[in-house]
Design brief:
Two copies of one chain form a homodimer. By secondary structure, chain A is mostly helical. The first copy, chain A, is 67% helix and 0% strand. Chain A is built from nine helices and no strands. Chain A is elongated, with a radius of gyration of 20 Å. Chain A starts with 28 loop residues before the first helix and ends in a 5-residue tail after the last helix. The N terminus of chain A is likely disordered. The structure holds a DNA duplex (30 and 30 nucleotides).
DNA sequence: CCGAACTTACTGATCACTCGTTAAGTTGAC
DNA sequence: GTCAACTTAACGAGTGATCAGTAAGTTCGG
């Protein structure tokens, strides 16, 4: 995602000037704001977070936020939008790299999802918890992407059932259970703990295949 | 749960006076407040809900809330506490009624959980979503109960693995996946839909047994 | 059966404070 | 001097909480 909303209204991309020298915002700019918002939204929730808290964490005045975003709501939406696009892109990529065997495809999607939930744990939780605080416009704009992601799972499971690779009687509930199990990881996983990401992926791949009632 | 906190500070139980005549709150009293809070907290979240909104929904003045609860936080805590106790009690009850076979016990716990998530769908979601908005005192007080409930699952699955009834390699992840799948029900289930509670229980019992890798 | 004393279950007004937002001014690199 | 990237100061609306007041009901001595 790289739309006009990445920039202040009417601004031109300052990532690199005409001379090739990057222009670095003195106060950390958009990244400082976004990073702080990510932390504070995750800690206290959208309504529990004030833009003063966010600005303080970013080391800027509260007005700096209004230079980069037109509103608090826009800040939340940008955060969720970026990470939702990222997730969808990763899933899409992962599925391009495997063949058409439903079990392989399910493995790929579980891997992409678990990796995302771990690597972007904070945004993950914001996306699921603060979704309801998006104003209708923003929510509707992202809803299509959400449904597409959900459809990726559904297609794989339905195909597997049709082919006899999966024997679960209720594909929709299998899908919801697998997704719920993967999503929950972001709530309990501690990156500093003993369990590494590859092991985690393997565990949840197995669980997903069992939920889908895979017979090898 | 029926503690002194059910009543205004310093008050004596008025459910039945010395003469046996009950005192009926004119405006609906505690129940009106609690019911409204349940709805508004569920709709907008703790910080998104104002006590004025809650009072308005209850058909009372804002001050009426302070007659029954010392604070907004206490109102949330009371709501979560009651439903958490209710859940734990139902689980406990369900497990008393079955023998010691791990599969039977898992079935009983899934049933109790799914029924709870459907029947008390709203409180369910408040409990999971607004947990973090409990102040430390309240959270710590309820944390023990939460851990006890989690232990119910762990004991059953560990026992099943020890006996060879369940063959999942990672009992903790199996537990978390089963719980996540059951909990998610409260987020998507529509009571007015076609899928009835008994069918739902059966579906999720099967999923849980597959996650635990039950061999019959 | 009366009525003073007391309790219950509220209301309305108001407090100090925080909220998101905005306008106007400042800084400093080019 | 220009313009991106800020800051300071303020606005009005809304927040949780407090408190004095009160209508309605209950209790109990006479």
């Amino acid at each position: 995602m790289s739309t006009a909303s990445d920039l202040p209204p009417g601004a031109v991309d300052t990532g690199a000037g005409p001379s090739g020298t990057p222009v670095i915002p003195r106060g950390g700019g958009r990244d400082a704001i976004t990073g702080a918002a990510r932390e504070i939204f995750a800690e206290r929730g959208y309504h529990g977070a004030s833009i003063r808290d966010i600005a303080k964490r970013a080391g800027l005045s509260l007005s700096a936020m209004y230079y980069w975003h037109p509103s608090k709501q826009h800040l939340l939406a940008a955060l969720i939008e970026e990470s939702t696009y990222d997730y969808f892109h990763r899933c899409d990529q992962a599925l391009r790299e495997v063949g058409d065997d439903p079990a392989d495809r399910l493995r790929a999607l579980v891997r992409a999802t678990v990796e995302y939930r771990v690597r972007r744990r904070v945004e993950s939780n914001i996306g699921t918890q603060e979704w309801r605080n998006l104003e209708p416009d923003n929510r509707e704009r992202l809803d299509g992407l959400r449904r597409s992601a959900s459809q990726l799972w559904a297609d794989i499971i339905n195909d597997g059932v049709a082919r006899g690779t999966f024997r679960c009687a209720h594909p929709d509930d299998a899908r919801r259970s697998i997704v719920a199990a993967c999503n929950a990881i972001a709530q309990w996983y501690e990156p500093s703990g003993e369990l590494g990401l590859p092991d985690l992926v393997e565990r949840y791949t197995e669980i997903a295949l069992r939920i889908a009632d895979h017979r090898s």
